[in-house]
Every structure is written in C-alpha cells, then in structure tokens.
Specification:
The complex is a heterodimer of chains A (430) and B (203).
Chain A: H1 9-13, H2 21-26, H3 31-39, H4 42-52, H5 64-70, E1 78-83, H6 92-99, H7 101-115, E2 119-124, H8 129-145, E3 160-165, H9 175-182, E4 207-211, H10 212-216, H11 218-223, H12 226-230, E5 233-234, E6 237-238, E7 240-247, E8 253-258, H13 263-269, E9 280-284, E10 293-294, H14 304-309, E11 318-323, H15 328-342, H16 348-365, H17 373-384, H18 400-414, H19 416-420
Parallel strand pairs in A: 1-2, 1-4, 2-3, 7-11
Antiparallel strand pairs in A: 5-6, 7-8, 9-10, 9-11
Chain B: H1 5-16, H2 25-36, H3 41-51, H4 55-62, E1 76-81, H5 84-87, H6 91-102, E2 108-109, E3 115-120, E4 132-134, E5 137-139, H7 144-157, H8 164-171
Parallel strand pairs in B: 1-3
Antiparallel strand pairs in B: 1-4, 2-3, 4-5
Helix pairs in contact in B: 1-2, 2-3, 3-4, 6-7
C-alpha cells in the first residue's frame, strides 16, 4: 500500500520553505486560481466540484458541491473555514495549516469566486498558535502580492480574509457554534432549522462553512479536473484523504491515501505495525465521537460507507489504535471526560448526562463501582441518545451528547467482561 | 486601572477587521489577558465600552472558553494533554511528574507567579503523544523525565519568548509529523503567540 500524494505534494517536495508564497508559486501554486479568474465562471467551478464528488473532510462527510449549491442568494455572503480541529486523535488540518497555508488560501479564493463572496474567515483553534502564525503570514504575503484585497490578480474580484483564533472550545467545531463564536458569543450550537448556515449563517447571512482539508483540495481539482479527482478512491469516497494515525503504532503520523484499503493494511504498511508486536484489542476509526471497532474487524475498508455499515463512522479521519494491554475502561473514561468537559451546557441530556457518565466511570475505575452501574450507564446513554443506534438519535441540538455515549456503548457491547470483573456481584434476595 | 492608549488603539484596529464590532470580543479578551495574565474586571469594563455591549455579556463569553483565564496565570502556563491518544500513551505519568515538580494541582498557580498547571483536552498532537503546551507552544513525544527537565529549564532560564521548535529540540521526541520548516516564533505570555493580537514591546 502506497500513499497517493495530491494535497501534501508541495510540502513534501519543498519541505524547507513550502509555507512561502514564492515557493508555492514556483511549484505551480496559484495557477489554478489564475486560470479560473481568466476563463472560468462560477458555474463552471461548481460543476467541477460537483463532478469530483468530494465529500466534506470535517467529519460529517456532506457532499461539498451540494453544500455550495444550497447557498442562498444575498448581497452579503461569507465563507468560513473551519480550522477548529479538536476531535481527539485528529491532527491532519494542523499539517495543512502549518506547512501549506497558500494551498488553503488559493482554495478559498476559488471557492469565493464560485460563490460570489468577498469576505472570508479562517477560524483556527486557539491552541494552534504556530499554525495560526503561519497562516497569518501567508495571508499577509498574499495581500502584498495583490492576491487578496481589491481587484485580486487584476480582476474585478475583491476578497478579504481574516484569521480568527478560537479559545479552547471543542464545540466550536460544530458549524453553528463556530458562527456564534465568530460573532463574539458563547459557542453554543444553533437550532437547525432555521439556522442552516447556507441560509442564516454568520450575521444571519448565507454562509459556507468548510473544513481546511476540503478547501485545500480545491486547487488540485481545478488544476486537473473533477473527473480526475473522482477517478481516485472508490465510489462514495472519492479522491484522497489525510488520515491521522495514532496510538500504539510504530509509525504514527498523517498519511494521504485513497480511500478503500482496509484498516489492517493501513496499520501494517504505513503505520509499520503495532508497537512491541502486540495485537490490537480495539480501535477508533474516525475520531473520539466514533464507536469503536474490535481488533478482529481490521479488514473493514476505510471508506465512509463501509465504516458506516459497521455501525461507526470515518468521521474526521482520526484512527486511534489500542493494543491488547490497553485498559479500555480508562480509555472510555478519558473519552467521556472529554465530552463532559466540552459540553456547552445548553441541552439537559448532554449537560447532566455526560457528567453523570463521567462520575459513574470514575467510581468504577477507583474500585467503588456498584452492581447496577452497567445498567445505569446504559440507561443514561439511552436518555441522551434513545435506542443507542449509530448514527445516533438525538435529544439534543447537536451531536456532542450522543457522541459521548459511543465509547460506553462500544465497551459494553464488546468488552463488557472487562468492566464486570470490577463490580460486586448482584445480590439476589430469595 | 484602565487600558493605556496603545492598547485601546490596537483594540480599535482589531475591531475594524470585522463587519460587526462584537466579533472582536474574542481577540480583545486575548489582548486583555496578554498583559494581565487573566481577564480582569477593569478589562471587562474596557471591552464592554469598546464594543458597546454590557459587562455581563463580556463576562458570559469570557467564562465560556477555557483559554480565557478568570484568575491570574503564571508566567508559564503548562497544559498537559489527557485526551485519548495521550491517555493510552501514559500521559498520566507526565501529569504526575509535572504536578510533583511544580507542587500544583489542576488550575493552580504558584506563589511566585511562575507556573500555572492544567491538564487539558486534545491539543492535536496525537501522533506525538504524550504532549504538553507551554503558553500554547506544543512539545511532542515527551517522557515524564523530559517533562521535568522542561520545567526545570523554564525555571532556570525564564525565557522571555517560549518557542515550540526550541522546546521540541531540547525536550521533545516523536512528532505528529515532520515540522520541516525552521521557526523561531513563539509566545511571550499565557495567550497564543499570534501576530495580529500582539502588542509592541514598550507596553
């Protein structure tokens, strides 16, 4: 198994200065946008994106062309790049921001041309200070060259980009919470409907919210074609995707591959196998929100649909491998604590439920578990996400609450005995 | 104590970047914390005046986000990651050692105002787990011993600017990916070192 290098080509070939405009341009950068501005139309760009069949790389996997097509007509529209990458296990956008910021900027210009937008924002999580500095420097270089600002590339198009830092809230990766945050409010998700960003987004205006990796793919698609892109990968999961591999792996890192190989091949070939020649007990196929798969499910194919068929999701492309020695109760506790900490507090099932789950797991882990605790955990989960199915049913405005149940349900479904041995036996009164 | 003129000018510059004033609230909170190490009551008054919203609206946003600090923070904010990839890579040992060395519990600051300790959720360094941030500058591939060395070094050297690449070279190990590009930028306070929000030296 080999990587297929599209998005990470420039940074690999020019490792020392891939962040500079002159290096990017010398190696074919900004060629796509020049072509588009000279001879393209918004319709022709949208057509290419649609024919590429690219699906959003943030986690939900929504078809990008369809999303762009939904954008309502208005004098004032916005593009917001979601660089709030905070899903535990995920660090793919970080490399794109740090090492190839101009690819993102070029993708943004093309996107804004297609959607007739003249003001865009890049919302970067506050903890990504160094990536944010790189992106800001790149934006400044682009302004100096006349690639941003008024009449960019000598055309009639204007575009301003503002780099905005978040302040440590995972929930702001949810697009409507991100928009609230960018408006200077608490990062609380908005109700959909009516607040679909494409209709009522930033400042109540139609807004495109797209992930860093999605928009970084746009220049390649325009330099080649939507059809070329669609010929990579498999149907429903076209093109390449950057997977973040972490956990008990010899060679963790970001890998750009065509979707369609199995997790097992991926781990063996690019990840160079499991550390200390151990076997995998369980793994997370798509970030902290995704239900776990078992070590005997490593032959599952890495596509959006295949993982969904197994009752989980490819999500943000974060693959976390846990070997045979992993204490899965502690792993679940870490994940649940994460969601309890990051709950925005708007909806009762999530606000109260995630903290209850955390408290119950804490007492089991410290040897104070009760015989009824497994039932209680599942009951709380069921109140957050009725039926415990995946994709989850929701009692909350956004999917954060239901995501907190994923690891507990996985633990109880496949590794229940690991928890049971820690609990006292049920007393039967005859 | 109200804000000095240079800070107010900077704030106005930031407000100008946005179609609506209130969007500048987040950046202005960083501007406040950059100097004081936390969001002081005076800053809340100042920001509410600059943006034209109520003090309680400013306070409600400031208290929502974990990177805006409600109490004075030390010169070096130590944030050790405890999320899944770090958790299964023994981050608890790093946490324990850093706590022991600094003699601090979660969210505490020492009497000298040198260190603030916190254990935090995912900082996007999963491939280089376990990881720490010092004033939001990332160090990956830590060991408990190296984490203590890092704290000792900060205590002895007390660098004015904390630079991720320098710390990584001295104390880090496996990285999430090749950082490749030489970099000497960093952070000079317990807020993210980001040029747009930074004040000039004389303040």
């Amino acid at each position: 198994m080999k990587e297929t290098i599209l998005l990470t080509k420039h940074m690999r070939e020019n490792p020392e200065d891939s962040h500079l405009l002159k290096s990017y341009e010398k190696n074919g950068g900004y060629k796509g946008v020049k072509k588009v501005l000279k001879s393209g139309t918004p319709e022709s760009v949208l057509e290419e994106i649609k024919s590429s069949n690219i699906r959003g790389r943030g986690g939900a996997g929504f078809p990008t062309g369809v999303k762009w097509g939904f954008l309502a007509e208005d004098q004032e529209r916005y593009l917001v790049i979601n660089a709030d990458e905070s899903e535990p296990g995920t660090f793919k956008d970080r490399i794109l921001l740090e090492r190839d910021p101009h690819q993102l900027i070029e993708g943004m210009i093309i996107t804004c041309f297609a959607a007739n937008i003249s003001k865009a924002f890049i919302y970067i999580r506050g903890e990504y200070a160094k990536p944010a500095r790189r992106v800001q420097s790149a934006v400044e270089q682009a302004y100096e060259k006349g690639y941003l600002g008024k009449n960019i590339f000598g055309s009639s198009m204007d575009l301003d980009i503002v780099v905005h830092l978040g302040a440590g809230a995972y929930i702001c990766g949810e697009e409507t919470a991100l928009l609230n945050s960018l408006e200077g409010r608490r990062g609380e998700p908005r109700l959909k409907p009516p607040f679909f960003p494409a209709v009522k987004g930033l400042y109540n205006k139609p807004t495109l919210v797209n992930n860093v990796e999605t928009i970084s793919s746009v220049p390649w698609i325009m330099n080649n074609s939507g059809k070329d892109y669609a010929s990579l990968g498999v149907e429903g999961s076209t093109g390449t995707r950057i997977f973040s591999l972490s956990g008990h792996i010899n060679n963790p890192g970001n890998y750009e591959i065509e979707m369609g190989s199995s997790f097992g091949e991926f781990v063996e070939s690019l990840g160079k196998g499991v550390r200390n020649e151990k076997s995998i007990k369980a793994y997370i196929p798509g970030g902290a929100s995704a239900p776990w798969l078992r070590g005997d499910q490593l032959d599952v194919k890495m596509t959006i649909d295949d993982v969904a068929n197994e009752g989980s999701m490819l999500g943000s492309g974060a693959v976390v491998m846990m070997d045979e020695d992993t204490n899965l109760l502690f792993a679940a506790k870490s994940l649940v604590s994460f969601f309890a900490h990051e709950s925005c507090g708007q909806c009762t099932p999530c606000r109260e439920g995630t903290t209850w789950l955390e408290n119950i797991l804490d007492r089991i882990a410290s040897g104070r578990g009760r015989a009824s605790d497994i039932d209680l955990l599942l009951d709380v989960c069921d109140n957050i996400s009725p039926g415990l199915t995946w994709p989850p049913k929701m009692t909350t405005i956004c999917p954060l609450g239901p995501s907190a149940t994923a690891s507990i349900v996985s633990l109880m479904k496949d590794f229940r005995s690991e928890v049971e041995v820690l609990l006292p036996k049920k007393v039967v009164v005859s | 104590m109200t804000w000095e003129n240079a800070r107010i000018d900077k704030a106005k510059e930031i407000i100008e970047m946005y179609p609506q004033k209130r969007s500048a609230l987040g950046p202005l909170l960083y501007l406040a914390q950059d100097k004081d190490g936390y969001i002081s009551d005076d800053s809340i008054v100042e920001i509410s005046r600059l943006i034209g919203i109520t003090e309680v609206q400013v306070q409600s946003v400031a208290s929502f986000y974990s990177m805006y600090k409600q109490e004075p923070t030390g010169k070096y904010l130590l944030s050790v990651c405890k999320s899944i990839s770090c958790e299964i890579s023994n981050s608890s040992n790093v946490i324990q050692k850093v706590k022991e060395f600094t003699n601090l519990s979660n969210n505490e600051t020492d009497d000298e105002g040198l260190f603030t300790y916190e254990s935090v959720e995912c900082i996007g360094a999963c491939g280089g787990a376990p990881a720490i941030q010092v004033n939001y500058e990332t160090v990956e591939g830590l060991t408990p011993e190296k984490a203590v060395d890092l704290c000792k070094w900060l205590k002895e050297e007390q660098p004015k600017v904390v630079v991720a690449d320098e710390l990584q070279l001295k104390f880090g190990g496996t990285k999430s990916f090749d950082w490749a590009i030489e970099d000497n930028t960093g952070s000079s306070s317990p807020v993210p070192g980001f040029q747009t929000y930074e004040m000039q030296e004389e303040i």
